[in-house]
Amino acid sequence: MQLTKFNKVVIFGVGLIGGSFALALRRANVVNEVVGFGRSAATLEQARQLGIIDRIGLDVAAEVCDADLVLLATPVGQMSDLMARIAPHMGARTLMTDGGSTKGDVVAAAYANLGIKVGQFVPAHPIAGAEQSGAAAARADLYAGKKVVLTPLPENSPETIARVRKAWELCGAVVSELTAQQHDEVFAAVSHLPHLLSFALVHDLAQRDNRDQLLSFAASGFRDFTRIAASSPEMWRDICMANKTALLGELADYMQELETIRRALAADDAKKLEDIFSLAREVRGNWAPQ
Which pTM value belongs to this model? Predict the structure, then answer.
């Protein structure tokens, strides 16, 4: 089999991440068959009708044993149990990757559940989420030009890493590598903390007696800041708990920043406020996201 061809891909979780992975591989014409597993029969049937998967998986053992690639595209809290179910049935040439937003916990789950097959698992994090979820949200171009971070294990062979890397590249992604610890520290700051703050602001307003009045006057600033609060509560619960240590550190730093701003405001220190805003504006203006 050629490096760029997959005869069978098995996906656990056929929503936005898993479904888009399947559609992207189909668009690249590098997969012959996609089998889907999930908790919702309705979602699986929708994915089949949308052409995301060819078949709904009924037997993990039968589907995984001859799979070329398995993708775990579920909330990270479910991955440990899935690994335990999959591991005994992985074929010698079956590779596994995932789409989890945290990596330390996923790597720990891999070592706890995959045994001698841990070298067949290459952790990954596609930086390509959206607020929508479910099979209907999946699209073939979700990963086009977007970053995917691999956090390879010492047990991964160069060939294994290259094949998983190629799978993500065939989806259109730009692939880079970090250690699991580096990954979780970076994303606690630039992804997990912003989501936490967005959820917190909307939750604060939601508990107020005049929330309908407040929201009726909210405009683009509120819309842009709170867009990510429309994300999956289950997924972000799992992410926050999984990356608790790094996230608590980032939250503490942010609270100190807020306290600095509070003190400047209370002291009528307009220059301090302007200095903070100016640096923030400069950095934000020079940032050019992909």
Answer: 0.87
Instruction: Give ∠ CA 200-206-207 in degrees, rounded to 5.
Output: 100
Nearest Cα neighbor of 158 from 19, 1, 3 is 3
Class of residue 134 by CB neighbours under 10 A (exposed 0-12, middle 13-18, buried 19+): middle
Domains of the chain: 6-178 (3.40.50.720), 182-286 (1.10.3660.10)
**Residue 210 DSSP one-character state:** T
For residue 282, pLDDT beyond 90: yes
pLDDT tens, 59-83? Answer: 999 999 999 999 999 989 899 999 9
Q: What is the pLDDT of residues 231-248, one digit of tens each?
A: 889 889 989 999 999 999
Q: Are 235 and 131 contacting, i.e. CB atoms less than 8 angstroms apart? A: no
Q: Which of 62-66, 146-150, 239-243, 254-258 has the lowest mean pLDDT?
A: 239-243
CA distance 284 to 148: 22
Residue 34's SS3 state is strand
Q: Indicate the Cα dihedral angle 237, 239, 240, 244, nearest 10°.
A: 140
Q: Tell me how crowded residue 232 is: count the other CB atoms within 10 A of its CB.
A: 17
Give the C-alpha separation, 244 to 144, whole Å: 30
**What tokens appear for 243 in the block?**
């990356």
Q: What are the residues whose beta carbons fall under 8 Å from the beta carbon of 27, sequence distance 6 or more? A: 140, 141
